[in-house]
């Protein structure tokens, strides 16, 4: 796909970078893709963000489709992947990230329990059938007599 106008300059810079000798032939720009279909072909999702995100959508999507997740230990990823729902690595620790990815790919049987924990967390906390009623209850409790 094409970049939206506001991001055109940034997209052009990314394309220039992808043509450098270190990256040539190793980076693909896919445009819009169906996340579920695409993730079904992956072994693991890596979210190596250096800026914390409150609720990283890619992590939530991967958890919901049963894809193991490795993420940097900050922001929403720390909370989402706690208690065995995923693997966390220190921010900007490339060696730890590489080691964790290698372990996950080499030990698919070992990540089965982690995937089960992640899917249960999504069902318990992030499924619309449970999340929206819980959110509404919390908002009504906060509103109290003001309604």
TrEMBL record:
Q: Does the keyword Transcription regulation apply?
A: no
Locate the Glycosyl transferase family domain: which residues?
9-120
Query: InterPro entries recorded for this chain?
Result: Glyco_trans_1
Gene3D superfamilies this protein is in?
A: Glycogen Phosphorylase B
Name of the featured protein? Glycosyl transferase family 1 domain-containing protein
Q: Which branch of life, at top level?
A: Bacteria
Could you tell me the keywords of this UniProt record? Transferase
Q: Is Lyase one of the keywords UniProt gives this record?
A: no
Native source organism of the sequence: Mycolicibacterium diernhoferi
């Amino acid at each position: 796909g094409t970049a939206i106008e506001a991001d055109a300059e940034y997209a052009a810079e990314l394309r220039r970078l992808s043509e450098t000798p270190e990256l040539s032939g190793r980076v693909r720009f896919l445009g819009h893709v169906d996340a579920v279909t695409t993730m079904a072909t992956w072994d693991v999702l890596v979210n190596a963000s250096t800026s914390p995100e409150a609720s990283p959508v890619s992590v939530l999507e991967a958890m919901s489709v049963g894809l193991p997740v490795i993420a940097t230990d900050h922001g929403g990823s720390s909370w989402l992947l706690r208690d065995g729902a995923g693997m966390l690595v220190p921010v900007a620790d490339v060696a730890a990230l590489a080691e964790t990815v290698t372990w996950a790919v080499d030990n698919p049987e070992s990540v089965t329990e982690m995937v089960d924990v992640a899917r249960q967390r999504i069902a318990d906390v992030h499924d619309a059938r449970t999340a929206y009623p819980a959110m509404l209850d919390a908002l009504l409790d906060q509103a109290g007599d003001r309604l």
